[in-house]
Amino acid sequence: MPRSRSATAAVALAAVGAVLVGCGSSATSTGGGSAAGVAQDPNAPFEVWTRSTEATAKVYEKIFKEFEAKTGVEVDYKPIFADFDKQIQQRAAAKDLPDLVVTDTGSLGVFTSQGLVGEIDKAGIAGGGDVVERAWNNGRASDGKYYAIPFSTQAMVTLIRRDWREKVGKPVPKTWDELTDLATAFTKDDPDGNGAADTYGMLVPGTTDRGYLGWWASSFVWQGGGDILKQDGDRFSVAVDSDETVKSVDYLKKMFCGDPKLVQPGALTTGTNDAHAFFETGKTGIYVTGPYMFGRFDKNLGKDKYEVVAAPKGPAGDTVLGEGENIYLMAGSPRADAQKKLAEYLISAEAQQAGMKGDPTPVVRLPVNSEVDVKAVYDDPRWETTAKVYADSARPFSSVPNFQPFRQQFSETLNSLFSTCSNDSKAELGKLAENLKKELQTQGMAK
Asked: Is residue 426 a contact partner of residue 249, using CB atoms and an 8 Å limit?
């Protein structure tokens, strides 16, 4: 009789962080992801989670069905969007993690610091040599070792209501000043022609949930020459109170506190999933977001009504956030061989292309496999723009063991500054800097 998932997990997660590296078929040599000494059980359920909406879950389902047909390995698939991180922590506390998880690169620090994943041997992953090195960096932690396998990459791009821009007679913005000028026109000059003052320039997912406001603001901070942390060798110092960061934050604050306000009502409590409707229903005209929104907006707004451009340059350039999704081989799995097989399939050219062809939303945005041609698969200049932005201007968050506390505290400080319209950004960012210095020390990364 097959052993139940929970019965196996009780033994498997007894040493959740003790993961060995190698390649082969035993529990201790599968390319990473299984705890040392975990009893393997080919009859145990093979549970796979993705951070997915209903639309993206359908794409994953097709990919997993193809994997099952090719390998005979059955996938117990659970797409989860709401409270994904909370549910992972609940399962970790119950010593019953899923076997494999596909979620964003921001989870790397949490998973490694808690011992929920183990080191990955790149050489032990079939097809790993076809994965571009820059994508592999998404799975590399601050110690220089790899704890995840990249699945998809992306860069933030700027979406603009083309029809509105033409109506108000403004050019495609190339600089911050031109971006502000366009956002102001979208707010004041009735771009939809309905005679009502009901449009806004900038769409901002400004909630502090998971540090979203800090996530959105990061590209602007870098474009202004600022940063949250500054790396020096293998150590970091706090840069969130630098003059460049303060100026960047003040530039953003004018969007929330100026006359007119350029952001949508309720921006500081708007989550990403709620934000999209403001753009597609004609309430806002500029949205800095990822390319995963193209399919939805094509369908709900119309492909001809908006354009995709690289970020307008700030005082220090056009740097934007570049991140993506990783494949995490979770510790304590009784199905180490299946973990490795699925990971190798997901980075194959076949699975990468299938993920890119998701309708309306791809789960692979920019492929990590160098054999996949973005232009040939998408045949869409917007994706070529995204690929160029990723290659030329994208960067990730700092590679401290766990960046989430830094992003969260930065988000909360910004939210407070923008909600109160405080005139002393320098002082508030200075207070934040002291807290971030303590966090750096706690993580052992202070310069």
From this structure: no
34's tokens: 């299984």
Note whether 305 and 359 are same-domain residues. no
Q: How many domains does the chain fold into?
A: 2
Residues 104 and 365 sit within 8 Å (Cβ to Cβ)? no
Return the structure tokens found at 339.
């973990």
| Alpha-carbon gap, residue 241 to 338, rounded angstroms | 47
Q: Which residues of the chain have pLDDT under 70?
A: 1-36
Domain with 258 in it: 157-322+399-442
> Is 255:261 a contact under the CB 8 Å cutoff?
yes
Please indicate, yes or no, whether residues 59 and 17 belong to a single structural domain of this protein: yes
- Using alpha carbons, select from 66, 152, 148 the residue that is nearest to residue 327: 148
CA distance 178 to 193: 22
Q: How large a percentage of the chain has pLDDT more than 90? A: 86
Q: What is the pLDDT of residue 36?
A: 56
Q: Could you write out the DSSP letters of every residue in 174-204?
A: -BHHHHHHHHHHHHHS-TT-SSSS--EEEE-
- The pLDDT value recorded for residue 101 is 98
Tokens 């789960």 locate to: 363
Residue 169 three-state SS: coil
The Cβ of residue 348 has, within 10 Å, a number of other Cβ atoms equal to 18
Tell whether 199 is covered by a domain: yes
Q: 54 and 114 in one domain? A: yes
Task: List, in order, residues 6 or more apart from 431 with CB less than 8 Å away.
Answer: 413
Element (H, E) at 160: strand 157-161
